[in-house]
Amino acid sequence: xxxxxxxxxxxxxxxxxxxxxxxxxxxxxxxxxxxxxxxxxxxxxxxxxxxxxxxxxxxxxxxxxxxxxxxxxxxxxxxxxxxxxxxxxxxxxxxxxxxxxxxxxxxxxxxxxxxxxxxxxxxxxxxxxxxxxxxxxxxxxxxxxxxxxxxxxxxxxxxxxxxxxxxxxxxxxxxx
Length: 176
Hints:
Layout: E1 8-12, H1 18-31, E2 36-40, H2 48-54, E3 59-63, H3 76-96, E4 103-107, H4 109-114, H5 120-128, E5 135-140, H6 145-150, E6 153-156
Parallel strand pairs: 1-5, 1-6, 2-3, 2-4, 4-5
């Protein structure tokens, strides 16, 4: 956390807005002429923000080629496959991020670490040794103390009310 050339942003909590904030920062960085690398864990690439981000020159998007579904519905075999696929995605993205990007967004990486889907130690090592000038955003629920120690910004999204609690399903363009 003693670097001054770039920062690590952690958007966490049980409220809506973590991905939305990361997309907003990605667009801001792109508008400032920075190259942006954006990836998501636990999502299948069909969310509306992915098509919007892909339409911007200077934004590269990586998503997992295999969607594994919801964590709580996976059996151990499915979890093992998800672990393999998402760890591969993480390694590809971290390698790519060393090629002159100004912003790296790892959406739901916190949740992926918490569930053991990606190795937290590899992510932390990358954050400690990231390329000069690379700003990094990580999002998700319940970050570990070790991840929080790496963050320069920690923003918690706290749910006070959400339409889902009243039975209103996620709406395209708003929640996904």
